[in-house]
Amino acid sequence: MDMSNLPTTHHFDVLIVGSGGAGLSLALSLPHTMRIAVLAKSDLTDASTFYAQGGVAAVLDQTDSIEQHINDTMIAGSQLCEHDAVRQTVEGGQPSVAFLLNQGVQFTLDEQQQLHLTREGGHSQRRIIHAADATGRAISTTLVERAREQRNIEIFENFIAIDLITTHKLGQSGDNRALGLYALDDKTEQVHTFLAPFTALACGGAMKAYLYTSNPDIATGDGIAMAYRAGCRVANMEFNQFHPTCLYHPQARSFLITEAMRGEGAYLRLPDGERFMLRFDERAELAPRDIVARTIDHEIKRLGIRHVWLDITHKPAEFIIEHFPTLYARLMELGIDITKEMIPVVPAAHYTCGGVVVDEHSQTDIAGLYAIGETSYTGLHGANRMASNSLLECFVYGMAAAAHIQTQASHSYPVPIVPAWDDSQVIDPDEDVVILQNWDELRQTMWNYVGIVRSTKRLQRALHRIEMLKTEIAEYYQDYQVSKNLIELRNLVLVSEMIVRCALARKESRGLHYTLDYPALAPELRKTVLNPPNFSVEQPFVNVELTA
What are the structural domains, with CATH classification, of the chain? Predict the structure, then answer.
C-alpha cells in the first residue's frame, strides 16, 4: 500500500499494535464485519513469534493431563503463578491448536501422521507441538498470509506507536477509556492519529534493554511503557528470563539455540568435557531455564571462560538433521557441523515475564485497552516462564480478547475531538549520536548491574544512572522531532527503571530474580505491582499477596 498519500487520521473498530502471534490471533478471531488496523513497527513478520524455535505447549497425549501441565507450570514459576490464569491457559491448549490448524499452520507429524510432540525444560511430559525447529516461522508466516487475505484487516507496516490517547489525557473526568494512539510513519516521518473504541497492545517484551539478547530489534518495551504512561498497572518486571543457550559467535550474537535440542538429549559441557549440570540439579539439562542459565553463568565466572558447550554429537547425524534442519543449516554456514562438533553457547536476555496487568479477557485497567502476549502480565509465568507456554498464552488470550471485544462492541462509544499531533515547537535533532550514546549506556548498565545475578548495590547503581538518563532523554524528547530511535529509547529507559525498582522491592531470590543480598525464599508469595502516577494508592510500588 502506498502510504505517502494517506490521510493522517484513521478510524477503525479495533486497533492492534503488533503483528506477532498475539496480535494476529486477535485480528483473525474477530468478526469480518469489524474494520481492523494492524500496526507493525517493521515488516509484518518481524516479531518475536517469527523467531521462536521451540513450539506450543498443549495437553494432547492420553498419558498427559491438564493437572500435570498446571503443576509443571507452577513449579517452573516458583509457585508465583496465579492459578486461575494457569488453568485458563492450559485448558485453552486444545482450542489454540485447533485455531492454528484451521489457519493452515503445518506442524511436524510423527510416523502415525499425528502431531509430533517433543519435550522441553520443566515439562514432565512430551506436550510441545512444533514445526521442526522453526515453529515461530511457520506460525508467523501463516497468520500473516491469512491476515493479508482478509479485506477487513488493514495493515500498516513501519509504523511506530508513540503514545496512547485516552479520555483522561484529554482532560475528561470519569472512567479512563482508550481512544487510540499516535504513531510515527517511519517512511514519511509523519505522525498519524489512529482512533478506535478498542485498542490492543501486542508489542512484545523489553529485552532490548540488555546488551546481549536473543530478541529482534523491535523488543523495546513499547506497549508496557505506553500503557504505564496512560495509567495502567505493571507487575513483576524483575523477572527477566535469560535463555541459557544463545550461540557465542561474532557473526551471530543473537542466534538462539532452541531448548528442544536439550529436550532431545543434548548435553551441556565445560571445556574439559564435564557434563556440569549434573552437579547442580537432578534434572540436569532439563531443569527450568532460570536454573540452567544461572548455572552456566556461575561456571563461566568461576572458570573465567567466555562460553560453555552444547553437545548433541552422540545422537545419529540423521536424527540431528531431521529434528533441527534450520539450526543445522545456519550453523554449517558459520562453520560448525553440529553432527560432529559442539556448539559454543552463553545465556542471553530472552523473555519479559512481567508486563501490563490484565484480567482473564486481556483487558487492562483502562476501558477499551487490551494487552496480549509478552506485553501483558496475566499471572501465567510467575517467577519464571516455562518453555513454550508463551506462544500458547498469545493464542489463548488473543482469542479471549476477541470474545470480550465482541460483547462490548454493541455499546456506543462517542469519540471526543482529538487534537492532531503538535510538533510545531520542536526542531530537527542536531546530533543523533546523543541518542545512540544513551542507548549504549543504558544497555551496558542493565547487562552489568541487572543481569542474571544481582545485588542491592548493583541495582542502586543502575537506578542512579537510569534516572539521569531518563532526565536527559525526557529533555531531548520535548525539544526535538520524534524518531524511531528516540521513541524506543524513551520506552526502554522507563521499562528499565521498572525492572530495577521491582527488583529492589523483592527481598528474596525466587525464579529469575536472584540477589546475593537475599538468597533465600521469602515465606509469603507476593507479586510486585507498580502503580502509575495518580492511581488509587499513594505509594508507587506495592507488594500484593496472591489470592490464588
Answer: 9-239+353-408 (3.50.50.60), 244-349 (3.90.700.10), 433-519 (1.20.58.100)
